[in-house]
Structures are given as structure tokens and as C-alpha cells.
Amino acid sequence: QKEVEQDPGPLSVPEGAIVSLNCTYSNSAFQYFMWYRQYSRKGPELLMYTYSSGNKEDGRFTAQVDKSSKYISLFIRDSQPSDSATYLCAMSAGLANAGGTSYGKLTFGQGTILTVHP
Amino acid sequence: GAGVSQSPSNKVTEKGKDVELRCDPISGHTALYWYRQSLGQGLEFLIYFQGNSAPDKSGLPSDRFSAERTGGSVSTLTIQRTQQEDSAVYLCASSLDVTRANIQYFGAGTRLSVL
Known about the structure:
The structure holds 2 protein chains of 2 kinds.
Chain A: E1 4-6, E2 11-14, E3 19-25, E4 32-38, E5 45-51, E6 54-58, E7 61-66, E8 71-76, E9 85-92, E10 107-108, E11 112-117
Chain B: E1 5-7, E2 10-13, E3 19-24, E4 31-37, E5 43-50, E6 53-56, E7 65-69, E8 75-79, E9 88-95, E10 105-106, E11 110-114
Parallel strand pairs in B: 2-11
Antiparallel strand pairs in B: 1-3, 3-8, 4-5, 4-9, 5-6, 7-8, 9-10, 9-11
């Protein structure tokens, strides 16, 4: 079983829809939770990160972390065709919680392919 | 530079040959990371550097893979005696330092095809 599980989709929605993306994980040491967006043939770009549990909002994007359920979500409101991309969740234990020297390591989900139709 | 730069952007090689992939991080970033992304897969961690040292090499798939970083800047990932299963996109990222590993900036990657 992978440490981070993410449904690869693909997910197809009409423009203006609310999109929900999520990941589950098994490592209770994870403290930092990130969402990256990757366009075709480009490198991933960081959208948001959250430390520990809670919600974080940035424009049309909201990230939620539920550590008790080991479940994280990214919501996209009023989705646009330009949001069409692969969305990757990533996690790390951070300096205080990682064993040994692994605190620089991010563990990624498989990525969810999202298409927003005009 | 303005962003993380990787070269070459594409590399086609024959099975058994050695290849070198280069990464030039954002100026001032002391931490550098290498990942591999196979078709339809997420990013697989390979190795990271803080300065010139590599505290975690746990993701390197075999002893055919090695990486070095000199001068605290440019890094080279070397794959010896390439195999077809090495075909993937190799991504490099950098962060201000390893305590900021949660904020990584990625290059566009090197697409490696082993024939």
C-alpha cells in the first residue's frame, strides 16, 4: 500500500462547477500538506500548503486537512478551463517529526487529471 | 536565474549508455531535490541535497543512479548503463533551504527515452 493514495481520475466538469480533489495517507508523522498543479509537459507548481489540521483559502482554492481521518481535500470554486491540469497532493513530516535525515523528502500522490469544459 | 533550469529538455539514448542530467536551481536556494515521474505516476523522490551534501539518498532505484552537487549550486544526476525502465521525466526542484522543503520550485524536467 502506498503512503499517499490519490484517485487518478480523470475528472471532467463543466465550467463554473465546484471541483473536489482529495488524498488519503497512512503516515501519521506527516505535518505539511501541499497541493501542486502540473500542466502538460511542465513542472509542478505549488498552489497551497497547510500545516497540521485545518482549512486554508486562497481565492477560488480551499485546502482542508483532517488529520484524524488522514484525509486532505482541495476545492476549486467557479472552475475555469484554465484550471485543466493534473493536481498532485504532497506531504512531508517536517523538521520536528521526520526520523533521521528524511525531513527534506516529499511524498506525492499519483495525481488527478482534471478537465474543465467551456 | 529566474527559475529552476534543467537540461537537456529531452534526451534519447540507447540501452546501456550513460546519461547526465543537469539542474541549475534558483539563485540562493541551498536545498535541491531530484524526482522521477513515470507515465501516469506521481513524483517519486530520488535524492535531496542541502548544500553539497546528500542526507537522504533513499530514493535512488539502484547503484546505476548517482547524483552530485558542487559549489552549492548546479547538480548532475547520472544514470549508468541505462535500461528501458529508466525512461521517465526527471524533475528537479529547489527550496530556500531544507527547512522550507514544503515550498519547492520545480523545473520543467528532462524527458528521458531509452531505446
